[in-house]
Specification:
Length: 183
């Protein structure tokens, strides 16, 4: 693959590493409903804690700002809640990276106009293009997302060049959209 046109069928082979898993886990994602609920519950809990201990904390506010103590406490509660929630998400991401299972062998993906055949030492999987919900193209990876928590990770090292990886991402996008009849 040296030009920007990809000839199918195409076969890619690579070894999945912890860095590949980490790149996927660290992608920005929207919060789910339960995640949003947890976010607001965290901030609410911090606000309630500050409300309960408000009288004891009044002495920490300078006299010149005493009339604004409720606003100051609200901002502090929000900041503490955001920090706690961000820390929890970071720890969850590190936990998922540490628990990730790696394929026992090199991953081989055979790409055709109809599907992807994935072999990696486990039972072979066939993914139809219509099952790819989203294609995410980053500087070092292409992620073929089946669900928000499940993706086929294809690293840059599976290609001869960055241009080849970009062409593969464009082809994947076109085939996944075309499978649904959207393109």
């Amino acid at each position: 693959m040296t030009d920007l046109t990809i000839k199918l069928p195409l076969r890619l082979t690579f070894r999945l590493t912890r860095d590949d898993i980490a790149a996927y886990e660290r992608l920005p994602r929207e919060l789910t409903r339960s995640g949003a609920l947890a976010f607001f519950a965290t901030i609410f809990a911090c606000g309630m804690a500050l409300a309960v201990f408000g009288e004891q904390l009044e002495g920490l506010v300078p006299e010149t700002l005493a009339g604004y103590s409720h606003i100051i406490f609200s901002v502090v509660a929000g900041a503490i809640g955001f920090a706690v929630f961000s820390l929890a998400l970071t720890l969850l991401s590190h936990w998922r990276i540490a628990r990730a299972e790696y394929p026992p062998e090199d991953t081989e993906i055979e790409i055709s106009e109809d599907n992807l055949k994935i072999r990696d030492g486990r039972p072979a999987r066939i993914l139809e293009w219509k099952s790819i919900a989203r294609v995410i193209d980053t500087p070092a990876h292409v992620f073929l997302c089946v669900t928000p928590r499940n993706a086929v990770i294809v690293p840059l090292r599976a290609f001869q060049s960055v241009a080849d990886m970009r062409a593969f991402a464009d082809l994947s996008e076109a085939l996944s959209l075309g499978a649904d009849g959207d393109a």
